Amino acid sequence: MKQILIIGGGPAGCMAAIACKTQHPQHQVILLEGNSRLGEKLRLTGGGRCNLTANVSAEEIIKHTPRNGRFLFSSLNNMDPHTIMRFFTDRKLLLKEEDHQRIFPITDKAEDVVNVLENELKKYGVQIQLSTLVTSIDVKHKQIKTNKGNFPFDHLIFATGGATYPQTGSNGQSFELLKQCGHTITPLKPSEVPLVSNASIIQSKDLQGLSFKDITITAFVNEKKIIQVTHDLLFTHFGLSGPAALQTSSYLNDAFIDGNKVHVSIDFLPKVKREILEAQVKLKPIEEILLFHGIPKRLIQVLKTGESLDVMSIKQFKLELHGTRGFTTAFVTCGGVSLKEIDPKTMRSKLVPWLSICGEALDVNSLTGGYNMTVAFSTGYTAGLMLEN
Length: 389
What we know:
- 27% of the residues lie in helices and 23% in strands.
- By secondary structure, it is of the alpha+beta class.
- It has 2 domains: 3-189 and 330-385, FAD/NAD(P)-binding domain, CATH 3.50.50.60; 195-324, no CATH class.
- It has a 7-stranded antiparallel β-sheet with strand order 17-16-13-14-15-12-18.
- The longest helix has 15 residues, at 371-385.
- The radius of gyration is 23 Å and the shape is elongated.
């Protein structure tokens, strides 16, 4: 009987443990979690409702993975979004689909997702060690050293997350442990993170609190178009938040360096063509037309120049950006273990035969909307499934 250790009790670690016990029931599986309960970060996703996947194809997941999406081909073949949905519905957790194909538990409680995972772990006899902080790896003797003693292993699965939401224990320290195993860590940057603007219109707070559904935001670096996203947007006291801003940020990880000039152009009415607006304002006052289309009165007042208002200020609202809010508010880590050192078919290390790595610790990041959770579940499942040749 082999002893399998899994570090990290998030979606990747839990799914790795479940896959390991179902595929290799003869092995002893121990799950080490530094927090006092499983799924601490998972409980925060989707505003506490847990957007656990998206009702899209595996190809769409790859398409919505800005960094190293093709690496996921094999793991998504093992567990794609529809497999994830069946996993939970087969265990009596009803799901619902919201806009942008986002999948949530029908209860709107992330805790219910965690409960399904925890019940499966217990059903299969996975040993769960909570409040167990890993301090180092004894590579020579194949032992994990923790605040609760040493744990020997035959195979080790790292599912420790990245460097985002450090208050949940995902503080990036695990990357130092992976370096002990000889792995290369690519530069870590915050992704899926709110965007900061020092523009006077933001600093005045005149737009703070305004939210918009399905606007289109186009990002430019040095006047070169980088990405266009259509989703919900929120103006804040520091800049932009909401899914549109978060998804846009994933394509701007290297933008705010070396004096690059970064700006976005916002179309508040992407479903209404400019020509139609221009025709309408010839018949009625522009303010009346914009109010009819749902543009808030406060935005109209801010965009007025003197007594006039231009249609293009609604279709091409330009805003300079100056950075992001950093790791403390980022949902995802850009960077991680170099994928040159990982077998995409198994998640096993190419450098260390007894090591597998999955989830956010890998140099892969997807977009909000259930895509990142899908990556965590699929790579974790693959890591547990493919321990041996």
